[in-house]
UniProtKB/TrEMBL annotation:
One Pfam family in the UniProt entry: Pkinase
Binding of ATP, residues: K53
First-tier enzyme category under EC: transferase
Classification via SUPFAM superfamilies: Protein kinase-like (PK-like)
A molecular-function term among this protein's GO annotations: protein serine/threonine kinase activity
UniProt-listed PANTHER family: FLIPPASE KINASE 1-RELATED
Family affiliation: Belongs to the protein kinase superfamily. AGC Ser/Thr protein kinase family.
Keywords: ATP-binding, Kinase, Nucleotide-binding, Serine/threonine-protein kinase, Transferase
Domain spans labelled AGC-kinase C-terminal: 318-407
EC number(s) stated in the UniProt entry for this protein: 2.7.11.1
Lineage of source species: Eukaryota, Viridiplantae, Streptophyta, Embryophyta, Tracheophyta
UniProt protein name: non-specific serine/threonine protein kinase
Biased composition (Basic and acidic residues): 372-383, 392-401
Annotated stretches, region: Disordered: 369-407
Amino acid sequence: MIDDQKQLNRSPQHSITTFDLDSLEIVTALGRGANGVVFLARDNVKGEILALKVISRDSIEKKNAKALLPRLRGVLATDKVVGYAIDYCPGRDLHSLRKKQTENMFSDDMIRFYAAELVLVLEYLHNLGIVYRDLKPENIMIQENGHIMLVDFDLSTKLSPRSPDKSMPLNSVHRIPPDSVKKKRLFPFVRCCSSGISPDDAEIQASVNLDCTELDSAEKLNSFVGTEEYVAPEIVSGKGHDFAVDWWSLGIVLHEMLYGTTPFKGSNRKETFHQILTKPAELVGERTSLRHLIRKLLEKDPKQRITVEGIKEHDYFKGIDWDLILRIQRPPYIPAHLVEEEITVADKDGIKGLDVELFVREIFANGDEGDGGEKNNKGKDGENDSGNLNKNECKFHRPEDDQFSVF
């Protein structure tokens, strides 16, 4: 049995030494792995014997989809709020970028690039055992270098890591782990800023899925999450879901990029859910590999839905070198460097002194009335609330450079 005190001694308070090659004596190479080489080394300062795994930076940049996820830059905390700082994305999100395109639709080449990066980042998350569950254009940011950044993990949950040769059982999310139940307190904010489906929407699930038993419904309420136009049929029906829900949502996103609209949107939420369950996707136009891929992604039976292996081998991605996507120097859209201009405009509009604590409190207080993040960025009188941010006694803690966070 592992001693509890020893485990405590290995907590985050345990200091980590930063080495340089001059301070180490490399004795011999012990072996190699898929991404690096392991050496037997001696610390010349402390005299300790170590196993040193060395990985090429090029290999990391070439293969690691972490570059498409948020990196934690720092944490802010007061007695009323906590905050997490990540890199600013000057390209905003895929929704706003689509609005700038001709007829609000992307070209085939742009769709292919963003689709490939989404496949990589979802595959990476699934291999970590993370089901994202809220894929939509508003959560796909455009970084300064033109590559995407997937954000907003409020609705995500953890399963056993995905294995290519072992699919997850469909009931694997029926019983949500205790830490996921705690996320319920986040849902007022989700409703305000992203129209997300939360466990509070159980009555709508019951009206759509009338054949569920009372016991089944009770077990699955906390699994009923997502954003209504992008949610998979198995979530609506309450039959249990796994990683396949993210591939359904990818199909919805690709449809929206191609046609400028989602395929199952109804006049109200109940009609939208009914169409998700019963209506086939209408893919107007000539038969193309993209439309074929979308159809395979929007397969209503999750057991028959295309998997990541099938996606990466699909004709739509024919000729793509998956190992080189993250190294593309010129993505189809590079945001203009307007950060300083945006800050200047904010200063002129009096936003500089925004009272963060008051602003967040009012957002949560009015959460049930909100229908989108941008529409709720103003106070009750329609003007931006102002205050003095500096009056709050708080500290900004910078993490180590190699720390990483999934928001």
